[in-house]
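Q: Is it fine to ask for two folds in a single conversation?
A: Yes, each is treated on its own. Send the first.
Q: Here.
A: Result:
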Amino acid sequence: MGQYHIPVNITKKEFLDPHMFGDGLKLMEFGLSGCGTLSGLTILLSNANGRGGGDLHSENPIIGHWAGDQIVIAGDYGDEGEEFTQNPSENLYDEANKNYKDVSAEVLFALLEDKYVCKTYKNEMQYLLSSTKALIEDIILLHNTKENKLPLLMGSSGDEIWEFKSNSGNRVYKTIKHANGNVTCNCPGWTKNKKRRCWHTTAVLNGTAETQSVSHSIKGIQTDDGQRLLEKMLKGEIPCVTK
C-alpha cells in the first residue's frame, strides 16, 4: 500500500495535508508535484517574499510563518514514541493528525492570491478530489472581495446571509443582502411591515450586523475550511484581496 507522509512543524504544532493541495500522501506523490504541497511549504519557509520578480504575488501573513522552525516530513510508518512526539504510543504522523493544527487552507488561500498559481489550479481542476475542488472554488469566491470588506459577489451564489436570534431566543431569522443591493429578512417585523424594514436589515445596512448576529456566511461557500477563511477575513486576521 505504501507509506503516507505529511510536512509537520514541530515548533508551532502545525501541519500540511497534501490532499488539500491536490496531491497524494506518498512521499514522491507530493514531493514531485509542480504546484501543490511543496509550493505551500516553500512560502511557509520563505523569509523574504515580495522583494523581487518570481516571488509569490501575495502579502498574506501566512508567508514565512514557518521560517526558522523545526520541520519534519513525518511518515505513518514512523516509530512510536520517536524523538519528536509527546505520546510514547504514537508516532509523529499520528500525533500531528490528532493534535496539531492543519494550516493547509490558509496556505492555499495565499497561493491562490497569485494569478499564475490560480490559473494553474483552474487548469487542473478536473483532476482534483471533489473536496479539494470545492475548497478552491470557495477561495476563488472569497478572492472576489475588495478594500478589506465583503461586498456583494456576482450572482445569487454570492449573497451575504446573517442569522439573528429573536428577542425571545426561540427562533433564528435570516437576513439576506442580495447581489442587487436589496436587503430582505424573514422576521415578522419585515414581512408584515409595508415599508419592509426591521432592526435586522437596519443592522446590515448600518454595518453593525457583525456584532449583533449569531452567524454570517456567503451563499455558495461549500466547505468548512472555506467558511473558516471567511470568518478570519471578517475578523481581519487575513487580508482581503483587491483586484
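Q: Second one now.
A: Result:
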Amino acid sequence: MRRVLTGIAVLLVPMVASAWVAYNDLAFSNNQSTAGNVTLYTVATGNHWQFQQYGSGGALLDYDTGNPLTETVSISGSGGGPETSYQGSSTLNGDAATYFGGATVDALGTVTYGAGADMVLTFNNLDQAWTYTLTYYANRDNYTTRHIGATLGGADAFLNESSAGIIYSGGSDTGAFQTNSDNTAEGFVMRWSGIDPGADGQITLTVSNDRTSSTYYTYGSLFALEAIPEPSTVALFGIGGLLMMVRRRRK
C-alpha cells in the first residue's frame, strides 16, 4: 500500500508592505519647529531669499526613519512674489490636520505667486510597482477671495480625493480648485490617491491660477507623498482540508 498525493489546494492572499510617507515644508524659516526628517525644498526663482538656502529639490525622506528615498522632487516656478514667514499659520485643522498632523511639521509661511505665475512640483523615480498618494496644502491665512488651482500630470491612474470644500468634478478629475486662501479654519487639501506613475516614473503637480485676474494666486505651504506597494501574491499551502490525500491499495 502506498499513499499518493493527488491534489493540493493553493490559497492566494494579497500581502501589502508598510507604506512610507514623506513630507515637505515649502516655506520653512528658522523660527519654525519642523522636524529634521521633513524636507524643506522650495522654488528657487523670484523673491524667495528666505527659503532658497534649502534647495529646490532632491531626495525625499522617509518620515519614520529619516532615510533618503529613491523618489525625488524638483520645484520650479515662472515668477515670484514675497513668501514671508508670517503668512500662513502653524495651526492645522480639518483634512490638513488629518494628513499632516501626524508629522512634526510647521505650516507657518507660504510661497506666494501673483497672477500669471505657476509653481511645478516634479516627482521622479517613482516605482511602477507602487501606488502613490499626493496631498497638497495651501494657506495664506488671509484673503478669502483669492483662488488657487492645481493639476496632476503624468499619472496613468489616480483618484481625486480632495477635501469637500475643494472644487473638482469627481474622482477622475486631474484638477482641483480652492476658492479661499484663508484656509486655517477649514484645512482643505488637494489630494490624489492610487496614483500609477506609469513606465517613466514621473508625475507633476502644477499649482497655478487663471493668469489674468488679481484674485488668482499660486500659494503653497506643505505637501506629502505616500507610497504603498501593489499587493503581491504568495502561495500558502494549507493542511487538512487544503491538502487532500487519496489512498490507493495495490495487491
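Q: Anything structural to flag on that second result?
A: Two points. The first helix runs from residue 94 to 100. The first strand starts at residue 2 and ends at 8.
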